[in-house]
Amino acid sequence: IRGHVSRMKRLTFILVFISSLVFGILSGLPLSFVMRNAGLVDQGISWQQARGTIWHGQVTGLGYRGQAVGALDVKSSPLSLLSGTIASDVKWVGQAGRARGKLKLSGSSVNLSGFAAELDIGRLSGIHPELRRIGGVLKLSNAAAHVDSAGKCRTASGATQLDLVRRLGVQYGRDWPMLTGAPACRDGNFELPLTGDGPNGERFEITLRARPDGRTGMDVHVEGLDPQATAALAAMGFTNTGNGYTLGQEATLAEGN
Questions:
Q1: pLDDT (0 to 100) of residue 159
Q2: Does residue 133 contact residue 121 with C-beta atoms inside 8 Å?
Q3: Which residue in 253, 213, 237 sits closest to 63, CA to CA?
């Protein structure tokens, strides 16, 4: 019996030692090595420098499809590698704003969860110049998304709000609403459809989108405006579609200059 107990103790010690060794090796993996082997380049993601380890590292000069995006601070769980994934808490900062959330890489697919962000649309391309001039803050909360190996959005959820229309209303002396909505995937695009109704029957619809190829865009549709407000929007470039006025813009994914 004593011999059996002794062998069990030695086996337990060996298993603990091996587990500790594996944990130590994994936790010390350079972040640059993990990023190079995580399929990120295949999805158009690039970076100038990755410092530290997957336990805690920083990425600077981050880019997407050749466009500057900003910098990341990454804190990962080495144990997630044992299940064939990389699970990380990430913080992003760029000229366009800031964001934080959880990211999981599995093969070449990406999952985001618990994502929160504040973006200055005046710093983003794909927005009509007149609307960029007015500015506005786009807020996302508790957002989640799944992007496949081709960079296509497959599922998305969360809450979104944008104060662009409210700011535009102030400029024209109108009480226009804050727009709200939820992230969605459509034809592989990541979209943010936002809507809001004014106190006098006005209807505002804005859709922001990011395509797998890196292009971003914004479509605006408004209805029920009074003649003075309609004339003001027409002067900005809105087009009469018979059931309202629309404005569209599309560009590569980038922060504004």
A1: 98
A2: no
A3: 253
